[in-house]
Structures are given as structure tokens and as C-alpha cells.
């Protein structure tokens, strides 16, 4: 399997003119600590700070502030879908960030 994988990687590198990754390094490249996965965030809506909320796609200072204000006013989120009750967050915005937020 490793010989096949190495052969395919070398062939791909030649065709795409990219550096070759050794078979031993495949696990390191695909590990959860790689740069790609490091950019994905996951926040608890009831604990996230203003700065953390602003890391969500499409959420700036005003939406992050509105989320915190709503959370304080109602005593916390019971479910992620309550985000649509926050001013400026509709179904489209919820769909964008749903996979990055949760309620504990």
C-alpha cells in the first residue's frame, strides 16, 4: 500500500510540478493539527467572547455584540437555532456558521 501511495504521490508531483511528500510524512500532512484544520473554529454560544464571535464568517463587531446582548437578555442560548432571533442574523447567516457553533 505504501509503495502504491508513494508511486501515486511521485506521479502526481511530476504532473503537477509540486514537491513530493514521503509516505512516512502522509500522517503528518493529514493530521488534525495541520494549518487547514487550525483555521476552523468551534464556539459555545453561551461562553464565546466578543473577539471569538468575530472570527465566525460574516460576524463583525455589531453582530457579535448583538449575540452577547441577546445571550445576556434571555439568560443564554438553549439551541443554536435561537441565533435567528438575534438582530442581523437570519437563516442564511445561520447556515454559514451553524457547523462552527454549539450550545452546551
Automatic annotation (TrEMBL):
Superkingdom classification of source: Bacteria
Q: Name one GO molecular function term.
A: DNA binding
Domain (Helix-hairpin-helix DNA-binding motif class): residue spans on this chain: 51-70, 81-100
Could you name the Gene Ontology cellular component terms for this entry?
A: type II protein secretion system complex
Q: Which NCBIfam families match?
A: competence protein ComEA helix-hairpin-helix repeat region
Q: Where is the signal peptide?
A: 1-23
Q: What is this protein called?
A: Helix-hairpin-helix DNA-binding motif class 1 domain-containing protein
Q: Which Pfam family name is an example for this entry? A: HHH_3
At the highest ranks, the source species' classification is: Bacteria, Pseudomonadati, Pseudomonadota, Gammaproteobacteria, Alteromonadales
- Which biological process, per GO, is one annotated for this protein? DNA repair
Determine if Signal is one of this entry's keywords.
yes
Q: Mind listing the UniProt keywords for this protein, alphabetically?
A: Signal
Amino acid at each position: 500500500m505504501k509503495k502504491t501511495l508513494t508511486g501515486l504521490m511521485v506521479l502526481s508531483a511530476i504532473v503537477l510540478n509540486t514537491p513530493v511528500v514521503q509516505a512516512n510524512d502522509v500522517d503528518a500532512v493529514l493530521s488534525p493539527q495541520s494549518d487547514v484544520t487550525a483555521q476552523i473554529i468551534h464556539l459555545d454560544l453561551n461562553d464565546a467572547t466578543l473577539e471569538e464571535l468575530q472570527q465566525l464568517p460574516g460576524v463583525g463587531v455589531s453582530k457579535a455584540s448583538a449575540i452577547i446582548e441577546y445571550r445576556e437578555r434571555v439568560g443564554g442560548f438553549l439551541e443554536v437555532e435561537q441565533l435567528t432571533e438575534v438582530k442581523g442574523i437570519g437563516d442564511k447567516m445561520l447556515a454559514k456558521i451553524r457547523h462552527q457553533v454549539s450550545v452546551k
